[in-house]
Structure formats: structure tokens, C-alpha cells
Amino acid sequence: MTFDPASLKYDANGLIPCIAQQEGTGEVLMMAWMNAEAVAKTLDTKRVTYWSRSRQAFWIKGDTSGHIQDLIDLRVDCDRDCLLAIVDQTGAACHTNRRVCFYTSVISGDEVELMSPMSDT
Amino acid sequence: MTFDPASLKYDANGLIPCIAQQEGTGEVLMMAWMNAEAVAKTLDTKRVTYWSRSRQAFWIKGDTSGHIQDLIDLRVDCDRDCLLAIVDQTGAACHTNRRVCFYTSVISGDEVELMSPMSDT
């Protein structure tokens, strides 16, 4: 069956969450949002492209930082309301310059920082 | 710093997305939603508890199916608006009885099913 981005289930703002995971290591890098056009652009260009809710604009990941996400595979979940992008992430996925956005653990009852920002070397 | 579920950023419906990842293998199992009370219950019980948007009720994962998620770690992202639960998943995470919900690949332009439902043995 041919895939049509319009067949996905978007929220009231026309957005669908997309989880980015590093191929090979399996690291969950980040979660951001796409609209139907961002899904199509991501598939067309193989450069992961989100919709920035704060800027209300397309966000071609890494276009300013150089921290691009090359698309390896794009997967749809059973309810068609969430995406999983398998990617090859250059450098830090997080705007704090950490490899991943999920660097704070809370299971102990306290907030524990699991990793530091990457060096710029 | 002591973690307070109220310090997270919830959407207009009082919900935050939570990605579940299998410890060890790194499989991204599913994504579902929590409210502040579900976050607290998850941390208190170490059994991952979502908020079912369709049923408008707490959803203790596996309570009816037996496919429970034991919590290993709970992580907060940089923007405090997404969670990552590192879990030990018993059996299938997906209601279709597949191990993960993200079993459909669309990168080829066609929809390709990557895995079958698990056997009940």
C-alpha cells in the first residue's frame, strides 16, 4: 500500500509526535512534532524535518547547528498517531549540546543529570 | 533537587507524552500519555501507568493483558514536556500483540509490515 502522509492522525493543531532514535545504538535522541508537509519533506529529502511550534516554521534539524539527522527509516505506530524516525544523528541532538534530550533521571525522587554537554572538538 | 510531577509541562488537556523503551535491547515499544497523577503513580508503584484518552481513565499497563511494564528509570527531556520510561516489558507492548507499536515502515513509499503478532505460547 502506498504511504500517504494525509492518512496519519494529527492532533487539533495538525501535528503528530515523532521520536528520533539513533540507528545501531538505539539511543532515544529526542521527540518533536511534524505536520503532514514535514512528514513528506522528511521522506523526500531524507533529512528529518520537524514543525517548530514556537517558531511556527519548518525546522530542518541541523540546518543552523550542523547537527543533522539523516533518515534511515520512518515508522508509523499501530494507531497511526505517532512516528518513529530511525536516524543517523550528527553530534548532539539536544539544543543544550547533549547527545540526547532525556538526560535527567527522576526515579530516585531527586533529579539526577545523567550526561554533560558534548565538547565542541 | 526533589522531583515534582507538577513541574512538568502538560498540554491543554493536562497530558504529557511518555515513550517506553525496553532496557537492554533499546527497543522503542510505544508512546502513550500521562497526567501528573499517572506520573506520580508510575514512580510510586514502579508499574508504568498511563492516562487513557479514549477511556478517560488510568491505564495500568498490563493490568488486563498481563503485558506489564516494570519501571527501571524515568527520564525528563530538556523542555520538560516529554518523558522517557526505561522499562522491562513483559510480552507484547502493542494491543495488536506485536512486541512494539512501530511495526510499519514507510520509507520506501509503500507501507511495509516489519513484524508479526507474537504467538501466545
UniProtKB/TrEMBL annotation, chains A, B:
Q: Name one Pfam family in it.
A: PRA-CH
Q: Which GO terms describe its biological process?
A: L-histidine biosynthetic process
The record's remark on the cofactor is: Binds 1 Mg(2+) ion per subunit.
Cofactor (UniProt): Mg(2+); Zn(2+)
Molecular function (Gene Ontology), one example? phosphoribosyl-ATP diphosphatase activity
Amino-acid positions noted as binding Mg(2+) in the UniProt annotation, renumbered to this chain: 77, 79, 81
Q: What is its main location?
A: cytoplasm
Q: Which residues cross the membrane?
A: none
Its quaternary organisation is: Homodimer.
Chain's role: Catalyzes the hydrolysis of the adenine ring of phosphoribosyl-AMP.
Which PANTHER family has this protein been placed in? HISTIDINE BIOSYNTHESIS BIFUNCTIONAL PROTEIN, HISTIDINE BIOSYNTHESIS BIFUNCTIONAL PROTEIN HIS7
Please state what the protein is called: Phosphoribosyl-AMP cyclohydrolase
Q: Which organism is it from?
A: Pseudooctadecabacter jejudonensis
**Biological classification of the source:** Bacteria, Pseudomonadati, Pseudomonadota, Alphaproteobacteria, Rhodobacterales
**Gene that encodes it:** hisI
